Amino acid sequence: MNRDDRSYHTTEVCNELPYDSELSESLLLLPLTMSLHRDQMPPNLSVEEHDDEDDSEEILEAVNVHSGVLKVEAASKVYGRYSRIALFTGLGFAAYIYSLDNQTTSSYIAFAASDLGGHSLISSIQTAQSIILACGKPIIAKFADISSRGTAYVVALLFHVMGYTIIASAQSINAVAVGIVLFAIGYTGLQLLMQIIIADITTLEWRGLINGLLALPFIVNSFIGPNIATAVLETVGWRWGYGMFVILVPLCLSPLIITLLWAERKAKVLGLAPVKELSSESLLGRARILAEELDLFGLVLITACIASILVPLTLTGTVNGGWSNPSMIVLIVLGCILLPVCGVWDLRYAKYPVVPPRFFKNRSVIIVSLIGALDFCSYFLTSVYLYSFIIVVKPWSLLYASYFSQIQSMALTVFAILAGVIMKYTHHYKALLVTGLCIRLVGVALMIRSRGANGSDAELVWTQILQGIGGGFAASCSQVGAQASVPHVDLAMTTAVILLVTEIGASIGGSVAGAIWTSKMPRKLAQYLPDLSEKERATLFSSITDVTKYERGTHVREGVILAYSDVMRDLLILATILSIFPIFLAIFLPNWYLGNKQNAVNDGDLVDDLGRRRMSRGRGRGGYTPLAGNESEAVAEHAYGRRSVEFTEGEVEDC
So where does this one cross the membrane (predicted)? Predict the structure, then answer.
């Protein structure tokens, strides 16, 4: 509902009202607290029948912790037309540089490691990076909640810049590893904070569309990025490839960060957000309060638990013995032990838990997390070796193979935008989510038929398009559905938890794909190429470059194609089975109404609720009890009787 469309219901025109200090103050509160139109208000509501003291207790307790959320809501009151344009322009610049960074720097690590004599350590570096990308999300989300979105963006940017600076000036592979770790902290922060800020400032009906539009740079940079990377490597070298983003990233993020910090500062000056006073505390006391609010011990437990699980999943294909290696078993057992310890700590001992117990009661959050994990597990089962499969099986050039590898991502981006448009006008997401998951299932299943050498090119391309269509619908709808199910105070951590569980699913899918490939491919090569020596088969297994030296139609090339097709079939069958479960899970999701609100479960404004609560406490037993946001229209109705006259927001403020 637009600002101009709102109307406020009371009983008389302002200049005809008898003066009463308490009632006048009640009227002055109305512009801050009203969020529902009269036809959305429960009938026959009166102040005696409703007392929000108990209903809002949990949210207001959370408000005491989540000062970052308070600052966001307070800042939203100071945005005007031009500052809002600046905010979305800043998001656009941030989205573009984020995608350009992603599409270019991934090509540099191999050259950097080779120049510094550490090419064999690339897998270890990438493992550390993937673990930090997953584990860093709850830490960044928690920090953004207790500080502010702008402050968290500055911190993430500093890590990003420090990481690339160290890599660009590295004289050893160890320095590169340190730089990658710092960069990963910043990168996961920028990735998460963009999604959080979009959810902060958009209503449910627009959120899917805005998310989709800000993913458009990935389509553009899918073609621009590789060309830039090639030009950089052929001219100035990989050091400048990293170094250019030390300049470009801060430059492109500056409009967004400046706008966020400006709004937070202006809201503070205007007194729109309460400020937590810590001046009386000692330095040690402040550190203790910060650690308590961050739930530092809980973050350490969760990080150790997730790392213990992800390390074996990502390293089983490279360590000696694979899953039979004792170190892998010890880490998995340690992760399984720490998991219930994390739960006990958050449920019983943490004052401000990283994952609040109410998350475990939220059907939408749990189901969407499981859908994300299963969907990404299925995706990585098919995608890890897809490029190698295409190079070996199809007589395509490297350029066309690269284009093929981008088809699914481009389709996903385009149809995520379409999903946003559909949700804008239908105001629901569940049917579209189920439809998307079904389309994705069809795309994965069709690959079983088209995987072989005799499968047509068009059929193989369409399997990727279908998976992109379904993935675009599913990604957009599931995220909006989960965010609709939580109040604003839980938004950041909900987003982080869902992305974390999704990352775990991706790691499981990649690990299982690697295990199946490494265990079955040598046997299949021996089955179809029994005349080759074991050493020759090992060479073909370890290098697609050696495979492509044999022309299509030769005995060796055709034998390798048959082996690749058989192993890919096993991966696709497993991926197809996993793709079925998200459909059934989605059926049990609540079909939230995506309206003109930040979320679907709480209509109140945390800043206003806190202000009214403090006012009530200050007045003692003065006879005025503030109402929750969706009950605020009843204040004047109770005070002046039942005759109703509509006021605009400006007229009430004039009163």
Answer: 152-170, 176-197, 209-228, 240-263, 296-315, 327-345, 365-391, 403-422, 429-448, 496-517, 571-593
CATH number of 53-272: 1.20.1250.20
- Structure-block tokens of residue 595: 């309206």
162, 182 Cβ separation under 8 angstroms: yes
Cα gap 45→36, rounded to integer Å: 14
The burial class, CB within 10 Å (0-12 / 13-18 / 19+), for 533 is exposed
Q: Residue 626: how many CB atoms within 10 A of its CB? A: 26
C-alpha to C-alpha distances, 25 to 144, 550, 553, 635, nearest whole angstrom: 34, 85, 87, 11
What's the pLDDT at 278?
A: 55
- In angstroms, the CA 156 to CA 150 distance is 10
Type and span of the H or E element at 332: helix 326-344
The list of the chain residues with pLDDT below 50 reads 1-65, 618-655
CATH fourth-level superfamily of 362-589: MFS general substrate transporter like domains (1.20.1250.20)
End-to-end Cα separation, the chain, in angstroms = 23
User: What local confidence, expressed as pLDDT, does residue 162 receive?
Assistant: 95
| pLDDT one-digit tens code per residue, 311-344 | 787 676 666 766 777 888 888 889 889 888 988 8
Helix axes 149-168, 173-201, angle to 10 degrees: 160
User: Would you say 486 and 58 are in contact if contact means Cβ atoms under 8 Å apart?
Assistant: no
> Residue 63: which of 220, 274, 312, 232 has the closest Cα?
274
